[in-house]
Specification:
Low-confidence stretches of chain A: none
Low-confidence stretches of chain B: none
Largest sheet of chain A: 7 strands, mixed
Helix content of chain A: under 10%
Strand content of chain A: over 45%
Largest sheet of chain B: 7 strands, mixed
Oligomer: heterodimer
Radius of gyration of chain B: 14 Å
Distance between the termini of chain B: 40 Å
Number of strands of chain B: 11
Distance between the termini of chain A: 34 Å
Chain lengths: 107, 123
Amino acid sequence: DIVLTQSPGTLSLSPGERATLSCRASQSVYTNYLAWYQHKPGQAPRLLIYATSSRATGIPDRFSGSGSGTDFTLTISRLEPEDFAVYYCQQYGASPRTFGQGTKVEI
Amino acid sequence: QVQLVQSGAEVKKPGASVKVSCKASGYTFSNYYMHWVRQAPGQGLEWMAIINPSGSSTSYSSKFQGRVTVTTDTSTSTVYMDLDSLTSDDTAVYYCARGIDPARGSYTAFDPWGQGTLVTVSS
């Protein structure tokens, strides 16, 4: 199975600041099939980025994804109050699909 | 709009089975793969299973192989997830989630997700 390791575990920032989240895979992710999800308590996860760098429908352009092979990054250029949540990376190029353990972005 | 609506919360005793439903609307049900993902309290997301659009093919995480069964009723656009031999470790919120791109088969990101179904296993 492909293990995804996210860092840091928690990111303490203020609104307006830039957030950089990392996701490292134990082996190369097939065709860069890497996604990022935002998850808030009591809500369903929300797809932000797919195929490493493509924004999902309706996602603001302050969210961007980059990377290749085994190293991937989600960047939030300027944090808005509603961006404080847990973020998960996921590889979907191999079975089983796997998720990272999450990065909590807190105020 | 595309929507996945799941069945309500369940409380089960150890050793029992649970069946969670996920009713889809707003799109052509028979074109998209569907996944099941769970989140135990304080834990991250864990992929469990996938079923193809027609319901004729499934794939399960080895962790759940033999205990989980995913089926589809195309007449009602509903997907079901059965989990047997429940233990307290199965206490979790269970989500269904649709693949985003039918042209790429089963290897796509997930969107949208159902609202989640809390399954509590307790004696």
